[in-house]
Amino acid sequence: MSNVILKSLKKAFDKLTKEEEEIFKNLVKISHLSEFASEFPELVKIPKKVTMFNIDDIRNILKNRELIDRIPDFLEIVREKKRMEDLRREEERKRREQEELNKSYYKFWHYRGTVYGAKKYKKRSGDTVRIVTEFFLQRSKGDEHVVLDGYDLPIANGQDVCVVYGCGSGENRGRVIQYINLSMRKSIGLEEHQNLLKRKVSGLFESKERLTFELNRYISKL
After folding, report:
1. I need a surface site. Which of 118, 128, 214, 218 has the fewest CB within 10 A?
2. Is the pTM of the predicted complex or chain greater than 0.85?
3. Location of each CATH 2.40.50 domain in the chain
4. pLDDT, tens digit, for every residue of 203-221?
5. Most confident among 28-32, 82-86, 134-138, 140-144 (mean pLDDT)
6. Which CATH number fits domain 106-219: 3.40.50, 2.60.220, 2.20.25, 2.40.50?
């Protein structure tokens, strides 16, 4: 029941017993029901007329035993309608969540092949020295040359390796964000590259873990 209605009834309620007050509150709760309206049309406008009721009006209503006896049934209808509405809202929430999960803010692709020409070396950039892992993947559709600057990765010629590239969903160029050495059963995220990608795309959504979610979803299907 709204605060407005309760405020309007305060003076009348002061003269009612607790039992009478509770019954009338319940009448206000059920007065919007079509089921209630069909059986007691004279009381349909209770919420709208409530400020006009005085103590005698209320007590006359409360003398209607047929009405009083039906209150529990009508309250059950109210509860059931609320339960159904809560279920509808929950289903709608889950639907929206699923739609969000199905969206793709990132795009991925991968190259898998046999490693050859693997090497590691140091590269100086100003005062910083970085390790570079470089190799080729032998593939039937054309070999892939991979240079990973700043990453010291476990690798050897002849190993089965997959590299996963990533970019924003509306882009066509990206960088390696995951290194998977299938021979060694190791999967290594290239954190610096992933963070760069996250910062580039993060304005499109709230979740900071979205890249991890979409990347894991992609890798699980490889």
Report:
1. 128
2. no
3. 106-219
4. 655 556 889 999 999 999 9
5. 134-138
6. 2.40.50
